[in-house]
Amino acid sequence: MSASPLGDMDPETFRREAHRVADWIADYLADPSRYPVLAQVSPGDVRKQLPSDPPDSGESFDVIFSDFEKIILPGITHWNHPGFFAYFAITGSGPGVLAEFLSAALNQQAMLWRTSPSATELEEVVLRWLQRLMHLPDEFEGVIYDTASISTLHALAAAREQVVPAVRERGMAGREDLGRFRIYCSDQTHSSIDKAVILLGLGHESLRKIPTDADFRMRVDALRAAIADDRAEGITPMAVVATIGSTSTTSVDPLRDIATICSDESIWLHVDAAYAGVAAMVPGFEHLLDGVETADSLVVNPHKWLFTPFDLSVLYCRHMDVIRGAFSLVPEYLRTTDPSGIRNLMDTGIQLGRRFRALKLWMVMRHFGAQGLRARLAEHMRLARLFAAWVEASDDFELLAPVPFSVVCFRWKPTAAQSESAIDRANERLLEAINKTGEIFVSHTRLDNKFVIRLAVGNLHTTEVHVRLAWDLLQRHTKTIDPTLNT
Ligand SMILES: Cc1ncc(COP(=O)(O)O)c(C=O)c1O
Description:
The protein has 14 helices and eleven strands.
């Protein structure tokens, strides 16, 4: 008998199964590399093993867990694997996983201060800690959302709120009093900016992509000219998005210069530091965010490179009152008599409900300590530089971008390949071949119209051994690919 009279799992069964799950997780986290990093299943493989209807009567956890191992696990791509070098590598660290366990049990819904005083106040405290570590201005106030896409959406909604008169009441459609608006970002900016612009009803055409220099950094002269052009045409600048750690190459836009332009022109400056912002805590990188003193908002994702299990994104904003002005709406059933001045998290965004995400960031920061966090970030950057040095020293490979943090962009350059498209194809096939091994997972991008392999270090368990394995696998597999074939 595993159900209590009320239907939930009875306490003793819960205790037993929780121990089993804890043991399973401990073994898993001790060595995720016993699984292939990239799931080796075909589309539909997981689905076809599952019934089309839910069970009529409840099943024992024993049976459910056995199906988890048999059916679900093979379809898992192991982001915790030390050979995970794709996209931005992340870590579900022990303290973060334990916090998620507690957070699920407490089942907090922190829409109002009174519905979770601890979630509300811990969020404030832990975001101040992160703010100090990253040398962000004291005037910024932070709020936790799920992803950078949502953080950026809120930042740009606030910019729209400031620029478009009475947008909350009157919207934008059919208004003859409104001209056109523009948001600027570089041609390397993440697609979440495009999506935010589309969703905010500005139209994709309102996003102007500024060209980048040879190191993929926004060209300040081009930004200045674009703004002047637009103003001459009667288009009102709404916001500029500068990126610190762009998605393809991790390039760093010249924030100080961009900030000066935005101050001079009174334009909202949003900084997308989703991946690399945390590097500002590492000795030698203290000035990474110079210029942020006059920025209006910044997004950083502890779920990317701060060992916090997915998901947790932080938006820092100088004008949280503008975000509240855009989003706060209190129906009678949510009105409280709590003292004024308390934070109700539902006021700072589109979602009413809030998970207790601050708990995991708090536990992660306490477990590692500032020194521990800095040391690991620095080590990841050392590993990336080491890999980049091997690429540079090789006659068969070339680097295609600078390596400011923990990501290396490179390609195989076989002398036998006759054309750029043959080199592209050879690299695509090389990537497919190494990913099929299940030992490492690496992703790609395209730069200057070249297919580029991208190795991202970011998992806590990744060591020099794994980076060397990636290099060895790449070299070994070049011997199995005919680079003259252009198909
Ligand atoms: C620079 C940058 N900004 C934003 C995002 C979007 O992140 P999220 O998945 O948290 O929305 C990414 C994702 O990789 C990114 O690299």
